[in-house]
Amino acid sequence: MHWLIRWLTNSSLLAWTILFCLSAATSSFSTTNMADFPPPKDYSHLIFETKQDNTKWFHERGPLWQGQAFSLQIKEVLYHQKSLFQDVLVFDSEHHGKVLVLDGVIQCTERDEFSYQEMMAHIPLYAHPDPKKVLVIGGGDGGVLREIARHPGVEEIVICELDKDVIDVSKKYLPFMAKGFDDPRVKVNIMDGAKFMEENQSSFDVIITDSSDPVGPACVLFETPFYKAMHGSLREGGIICTQGECVWLHVNLIQPLVKAITSLFTTVEYAYCTIPSYPSGQIGFIIASKGGKGCKVPTRTPEASVQKELRYYTPDIHQASFVLPAFAERAIFGSDR
C-alpha cells in the first residue's frame, strides 16, 4: 500500500513532492494546486460531522482524482494512528463494513474488496500453468494472500511489506482479509520489496505488486530499478501483476508505463475490474510475462469447490477483463480501433 512512495523514502515531505511532480508531469493534472490539500502530517480533513443530523463521514479527495470526492458514513472509528510511514485509519461504516484507509486513500472496504483481491491474484495465477513460488509486494492487509492460498499447487508464498503496522492492524480489525497470513506457506518479510527482489534473482513464478500508486511520471517511476528488479526476480515463464490505476482518470500515466516496460517483458497487457469504492469505480492491472504467450486466456481453471467460494473471478471474467473500451485501447496501446 502506497508502496512506491514508501520505497523511495520514509520522508513525508518527499512523498508530497513526488505527488507534486506527478501533477506537473501530466497535462490533465496540471491545474492541481497542492495547497488545496493538507500536508501529510494533517489528516483532520478525513472525518467531518454534519450539523444537521450529527452524522460522521469519511471524506476522500486527492490530486490524483481532482474535482471529485468520495464519502462514506462512519459508524465507529476503530483505529487512527500514524505508523512510521503513513497515516493508518480503520473505521466501521454504515453500509460498506470495515474500511482501511492509508494516507487518506481507501485501500479496501468489506463490501467490495473481493473484486480487487480476486482479480489481482487469480489473473496471473490461472494464466500460469504451474506456479510454485509467489511473491507479493505490499498487500499488508492480507487479501491477496487469502486468494493465493486458494491454489493448492503453490508451495511458497512470500510477502514483503514495509509497514508492519498495516499487518498488525489488519489482523486485529480486518480478519476477513488478514486470514491470508494464517496459511503455513506464507513467509513474511518486513522490508523493502525492491531490495528483496534484487537479492532473489530468478526465484518466483508470479510476482504481485499490491500498491496504491505504483505508476506515475518518468521523474519517479521510470528512473527506478523497480520493474527491472521484478523482471530479474522472475523465473522464465513467470508473470507479474501490478496495480494499474484507472482508465477513466489515468490513461496518460498508464501508457508511458506500458511503453517503458515493453522492452523488458515478452508480453505486456492490461486488464481491469469494477470496484465501487475506488475512484471512478474501476481499477486496472498491468500484466506482463517473461516468456510465454500472454495472459488473456487462463491455462487453468478453479476447481468447482473453489469457484463456489469466489465472488468475482471466473474464467469468463478473466478473458473479458482484457477487453478495453475503445478510448482506453487507443490511449494505452495506440490501437487504430
Commentary on this structure:
This protein is an alpha/beta fold and 337 residues long. 32% of the residues lie in helices and 26% in strands. The protein is built from 13 helices and 13 strands. Strands 9-8-7-10-11-13-12 form a 7-stranded mixed β-sheet, with helices on both faces. Strands 1-2-3-4-5-6 form a 6-stranded antiparallel β-sheet. β3 and β4 form a beta hairpin. 47% of the residues are buried. The N terminus is likely disordered.
For the record, give the distance between the C-alpha atoms at the N and C termini, rounded to a whole number.
35 Å
What's the number of extended β-strand segments? 13
Q: What's the shape?
A: globular
Residue share in helix: 25-40%
User: What's the alpha carbon Rg, rounded to whole Å?
Assistant: 19 Å
Largest sheet features: 7 strands, mixed
Mean pLDDT: 85
The tally of helices reads 13
- Structural class call reads alpha/beta
Return residue spans where pLDDT drops below 50 for at least 5 consecutive residues.
1-40, 214-223
Strands ordered across the widest β-sheet:
9-8-7-10-11-13-12
Query: What is the chain-wise order of helices and strands?
Result: HHEEEEEEHEHEHHEHEHHEHEEHHH
Beta-strand content bin: 25-35%
